[in-house]
Amino acid sequence: MTTSNPSIVSESVPYSSSPNARAPIQSPEPIVRNPAATNTPDITPGKESPIKRGPRNFLLAAAALLALTFVGNYAHHWWVAGRFVESTEDAYLGADISTLSAKVPGYISRVAVVDNQVVKKGDLLVKLDER
Predict the structure, then answer these.
(1) What DSSP string describes 28-73?
(2) CB 1 within 8 A of CB 11
(3) What's the rounded Cα separation, in Å, for the pair 50 and 35?
(4) Distances (CA, A) of 73 to 80, 84, 104, 122
(5) In degrees, to the nearest 5, what angle opens at C-alpha 67 toward C-alphas 66 and 69?
(6) Per-residue pLDDT for the chain (131 aa), expressed as one digit of tens each?
């Protein structure tokens, strides 16, 4: 393909020595391409930019950035801690255990009960050291 002017193109077909080859077709006039038919935008000073800049596009970009931030934060939390957490919706706890807390500070000198012993209100559980 040879060009002397960027908007005028003349095409040539290579010669073949094969007996079944067709003779090259010569175009009687050069092919003129329309420079306005290209997909490149016309950017000239003083004209409006082909990229639309407005509050809607800004809000869409900000929402996309915010969503990407939340997804990244969630992915980081899952990678660092979340993948090690085990949970279930079927679990239950059934036990006859009570938590004890002292109203007075001190050290325990003697435990008055044994494992799995049934106790009633008022029974002695522990004896505190008298220091």
Answers:
(1) SS-EE--GGGSSS----TTSPPSS--SHHHHHHHHHHHHHHHHHHH
(2) yes
(3) 18
(4) 11, 17, 46, 54
(5) 65
(6) 554 555 555 555 555 555 666 666 665 666 656 655 556 665 666 666 666 778 888 999 999 999 999 999 999 999 998 888 877 777 776 666 667 777 888 888 999 999 888 889 889 988 988 87
